[in-house]
Fold this protein.
Amino acid sequence: MKLVIVWIFLLTLVISVSSQVFHWGPCPTPMVQPNFDLNRFLGKWYEIEKLPAAYEKGTCIETNLSLRPDKTISVVHIRTRKGKVRIAEGTATVQNQREPAKLGISFSYFTPYSPYWILSTDYDSVVLLYSCTEFLRIFHVDYAWILSRSRSLPPETIYHAKEVFSKDNIDVSRMVPTDQHGSPYDEPLARPYWPYSTSDFWNYIEYFRSIGAHNHINDMARTFFSHQNLGDTLGYEVAEQQE
Ligand SMILES: *[C@@H]1O[C@H](CO)[C@@H](O)[C@H](O)[C@H]1NC(C)=O
């Protein structure tokens, strides 16, 4: 009878984590970044690829780490989902001073710290993060992330990152790229409205010149030329069929 209950318990766990990556056996024990320097690791990171996590759906996912006065680390997690920007703040701490690259992270008072290990980073471009939780050494659920200081990484960097994970027996075959397009923070400029004809344009130029309004000429010229098929849209976003 007891065995049945244990199996039902395990089965429930497996089902509840089935959207995650789950494997039999205990967690792998990867190497972490030697001489990890927390201060250089702080700041903004963009998510490039990850093992799918149910609580992390969305696009334009970014994380900003900063040190609080009490020496804990604030982890601000920003993502866009269904057109809305969602922000969550968590706390990370170094759990054992002798292993500074093994952080723990929690997003509420009630949840225990989950592992948040820095496997490898150059601090300036890329970081490989790993988190694994095991259940009675029977199976484990893991998360892995490739983050970057910019919204994209060259394919060979991603390839190399996956090799590093694989070398440590971390299965990254189910890693998925994170869409970093269309961030509400760096929206492209919409083309300004230009309802006039070309001869109107030259007439306005003459008029603005006569009154010495050179700023107006400049603005108007940018607007006008962004509507011409010159192959250069002067930094304005152009609908595809117009290119
Ligand atoms: C990250 O968070 C810190 C502390 O809240 C803030 O001062 C900083 O401007 C943030 N950085 C970015 C790039 O958003």
